[in-house]
Amino acid sequence: MKAILGSQGLWEIVEKGFVQPQNEESLNQAQKEALEKERKKDQTALTVIYQGLDDEMLEKVANETNSKQAWETLRNSVMGVERVKKVRLQTLRAEFESLLMKESESISDYFTRVLMVVNQLKRLGEKLEDVRVVEKILRSLNFKFDHIVVAIEESKDLEIMSIDELNGSLRAHEERMNRGKQEQVEQALQAKLSLKDKGEACENGRRGQGRGRGRGRGRGRGRGRGKCQTKKVEEETKFILHKEDVEEPVLFLTLNEEHNGEKNMWYLDNGASNHMTGDRSKFVELDTKVMGHVRFGDESKVEIKGK
C-alpha cells in the first residue's frame, strides 16, 4: 500500500499530514487555495487506504478523518498482530523441535504431521530450509529405522536431498519390512494348522481297536504307548517371531496338548493276535519271566514285564 501511495504522490501527506488552521478567515486567497489542495490530497490518500483494506480492517479506521490518522491506526493494529505472530512462531518452533515418530505411526502419517508444522512456520515468515527438515526427520524416526537412517546419512548428501526423496526412500523400506512381517505370520499360522492335522491323525490311529484271543502281553504300569503315546506332550512348538526392525512382537504361537491315558486302554499287535495293556489287574495269569521289548509304529519301545 505504501508503494501505491508513493506512486501517486500521496505518501508525504500520509506520513506528515497537514496543518489545519484554526481560523480560515484570516487566510489570504493563495493560502486558502494551498489548504484546499492539501485537503484534496489527504482525502485521495484516505480513499486509497480504504480501497486496500478488507472489511475487518476497514472497521478499525472507519472513524478516522484524515489519512495520517488512518495510517497510524493501521500500523498500531498490525504491530499488535506482529506480537501475536511472534508468540505463535515460538510455539511452532518448540513443537517442531519436539516432534518424534510414534511407535504405531507409519512413515506417511509422520511426514504429514511434520509438514503441517513446517508449512505453518513458513506461512508466518520462518525461513526453513529442506536440509533442516530432513535432518530433523532422520533424528526423530522410530528406532526400527536406525539402520536405514545410518545408510542414508553415509550414502546421501543431506544438503541437496529433498524432503520428497527422503519420504520415498523411507516408505520403500517400510513396505519391505511389512512384507517380511506378513510372511512370518503366514508361516506361523501354517505351522499351527499342520500341528492340528497331525494331532487329529494321531487321535484317529487309536480308534477301532478290536478283540483278540484273550491273551496278551503285560507292560509296566504307567508306561503304555501306542501309535500315540498315552501320556505325553504330543506336540509343543513355539514360534517367536523376532526381527531387529520389528516394531513389536508380531505373533507367539504355542500348541501344547496333553492326553491322559485311559486305564482301560488296550493296544493291538501282530494283526490283533495279542493284546497289550499296562494294567496288571486285567490278567488272569501272568508269566513274569517273559521279558523283552515291543516296538510300535511310531518307533517307540516299551519293556515287556510278562505274558
From TrEMBL:
Pfam families tied to this protein: Pol_BBD, Retrotran_gag_2
Domain Retrovirus-related Pol polyprotein from transposon TNT 1-94-like beta-barrel: 266-307
Basic residues: bias regions: 208-230
Highest taxon, organism lineage: Eukaryota
Chain positions covered by the region annotation Disordered: 199-231
Family matches, as InterPro entries: PolX-like_BBD
Listed name of the protein: Uncharacterized protein LOC118346300
Organism: Juglans regia
Lineage per the UniProt record: Eukaryota, Viridiplantae, Streptophyta, Embryophyta, Tracheophyta
